[in-house]
């Protein structure tokens, strides 16, 4: 048997785009190292509290703007009423503009310790009639009479709110009346509003963090319970995990873990069965070697000694073949763990090569070994080494069960969208009742004198399943010796989409 343990680089199909290996994208906190273990509790807490901490300054800013909007209207209404009152008491007497209020203006303005208020009344020629000349004048294009208007302005370096209007005089142009007020009271009212809103937030925010913490702790409690149940399991316990009580979002994870446990149990069972079978099968050749070696040690006749040594060599060869078959079967059964690379394989050319390797054994056994393949390539996706092993076992099995003078023929043909490999022999055939069992490991057809390990067809089935192929047994459609009906083993492969189209 050729050594099949070496790993071959995976060829690239001609014309196929190059494969670019990209590292998996990790999504998470950019401040953490990619290999750092992360806490689900901390991750959820971060994503819940981070928006809260970002929105809180925005809430403060929005509260300040709203507070300013709330504080301005009352003071603006007061300014408008004051300037309207003063405008109503402006009169024109004997060619002069007069403010005839009847009471002290300070009682109308009602200044306090936080607000500085001033007023201005101008005459027909823009002269100051009453009040403070420091109040800035309104824009030159704003001279129309009407309801009081308001604006922000500067007076003595301080920002003020100014209400102004144009007082109507009998048969005279209107005159300007203004009232200015500093903004300290407005700012103080806005600050009070902000305090009334922000201070409760300082109490609510820690309370919200505490409630989120408690909610997460309560929500993740089923995970903690599930973790505790898994930790309490014995190492040899591979029974499915009970998903009852686990959150709905965790159920798929538990199902995946149970599937992993099932596959692990199956793999362990395969290993145990393999070890038991291997130990059982190795007993016979090892016992034979020991017996033959003990007999050889007692021989004094050189001819008898040589005969014992030949028997030891034959037993060693059988044991070596058995070990090789066991190793091949073990690799085939563990295809999920160490799956070989698949590539385009021409089964026609591969069959020619394998038949050529078995020609010496066929000549030694006086069997006519032939091959019938397609002229063009018959490509499938597969592992060349394991497919070669499968073909070798099919031919070896046919040669072992074909008497001298018989024929063995290997074929490769197409059947619709399938590539079919056939190995036909002229041996005693396989009875219908035994065709489903000959693929079992170590099974031997009763009544045969052929030496073998009973692993050849088991290896064929494992490799075929690895390539999603179907294996079948049939009786050749030929006439001949009824005692030697022959056997036809057939393996059907799905054609690769990259292969040539089937002939019309």
Describe this structure in words.
- The chain is an alpha+beta fold and 504 residues long.
- The longest helix has 49 residues.
- It is built from 9 helices and 14 strands.
- The strands form 4 sheets. The protein has a 5-stranded antiparallel sheet with strand order 4-3-7-6-5, covered by helices on one side.
- The protein is rod-shaped, with a radius of gyration of 50 Å.
- The chain starts with 39 loop residues before the first helix and ends in a 10-residue tail after the last strand.
- It folds into 3 domains: 181 residues, no CATH class; 84 residues, Helix Hairpins (Orthogonal Bundle); 154 residues, 2-Layer Sandwich (Heat Shock Protein 90).
- A hairpin with a 2-residue loop joins β5 and β6.
- The N terminus and C terminus are likely disordered.
Secondary-structure content class = alpha+beta
> What is the radius of gyration computed over CA atoms, rounded to a whole number of angstroms?
50 Å
User: How much strand?
Assistant: 15-25%
The helix content is 40-55%
Q: List the helices and strands in order.
A: HEEHEEEEEHHHHEHEEHEEHEE
Strand ordering within the main sheet: 4-3-7-6-5
Write down the overall geometry: rod-shaped
Distance between the termini: 39 Å
* Count of extended strands: 14
Give the tally of structural domains: 3
Mean pLDDT: 76
Low-confidence stretches: 1-31, 498-504
């Amino acid at each position: 048997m050729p050594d099949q343990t070496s790993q071959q680089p995976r060829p690239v199909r001609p014309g196929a785009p190059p494969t670019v290996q990209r590292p998996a994208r990790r999504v998470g906190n950019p401040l953490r190292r990619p290999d750092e273990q992360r806490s689900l509790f901390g991750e959820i807490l971060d994503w819940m509290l981070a928006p809260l901490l970002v929105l809180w300054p925005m809430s403060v800013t929005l509260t300040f703007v709203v507070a300013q909007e709330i504080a301005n209207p009352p003071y603006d209404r007061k300014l408008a009423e004051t300037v309207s009152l003063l405008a109503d008491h402006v009169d024109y007497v004997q060619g002069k503009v007069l403010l005839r209020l009847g009471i002290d203006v300070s009682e109308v303005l009602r200044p306090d310790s936080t607000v500085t208020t001033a007023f201005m009344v101008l005459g027909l020629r823009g002269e100051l009639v009453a009040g403070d000349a420091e109040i800035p004048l309104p824009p030159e294009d704003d001279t129309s009479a009407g309801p009081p208007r308001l604006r922000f302005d500067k007076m003595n370096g301080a920002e003020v709110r100014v209400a102004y209007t144009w007082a109507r005089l009998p048969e005279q142009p209107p005159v300007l009346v203004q009232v200015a007020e500093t903004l300290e009271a407005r700012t103080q009212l806005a600050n009070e509003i902000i305090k009334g809103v922000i201070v409760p937030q300082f109490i609510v925010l820690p309370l919200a963090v505490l409630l989120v913490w408690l909610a997460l702790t309560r929500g993740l409690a089923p995970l903690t319970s599930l973790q505790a149940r898994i930790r309490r399991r014995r190492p040899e316990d591979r029974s499915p995990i009970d998903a009852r009580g686990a959150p709905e979002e965790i159920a798929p994870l538990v199902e995946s873990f149970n599937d992993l446990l099932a596959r692990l149990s199956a793999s362990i069972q395969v290993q145990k069965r393999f070890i038991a079978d291997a130990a059982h099968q190795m007993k016979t050749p090892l016992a034979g070697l020991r017996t033959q070696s003990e007999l050889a040690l007692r021989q004094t006749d050189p001819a008898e000694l040589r005969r014992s040594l030949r028997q030891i060599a034959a037993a060693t060869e059988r044991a070596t073949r058995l070990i090789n078959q066991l190793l091949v079967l073990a690799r085939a059964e563990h295809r999920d763990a160490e799956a070989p690379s698949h590539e385009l394989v021409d089964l026609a050319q591969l069959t020619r090569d394998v038949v050529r390797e078995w020609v010496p054994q066929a000549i030694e056994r006086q069997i006519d070994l032939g091959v019938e393949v397609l002229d063009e390539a018959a490509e499938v996706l597969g592992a060349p080494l394991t497919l070669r092993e499968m073909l070798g076992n099919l031919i070896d099995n046919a040669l072992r069960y074909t008497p001298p003078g018989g024929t063995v023929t290997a074929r490769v043909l197409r059947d619709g969208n399938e590539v079919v490999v056939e190995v036909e022999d002229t041996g005693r055939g396989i009875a219908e009742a035994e065709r489903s069992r000959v693929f079992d490991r170590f099974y031997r057809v009763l009544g045969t004198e052929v030496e073998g390990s009973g692993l050849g067809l088991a290896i064929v089935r494992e490799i075929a399943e690895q390539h999603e192929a179907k294996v079948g047994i049939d009786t050749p459609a030929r006439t001949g010796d009824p005692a030697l009906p022959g056997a036809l083993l057939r393996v059907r492969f799905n054609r690769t989409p990259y292969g040539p189209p089937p002939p019309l």
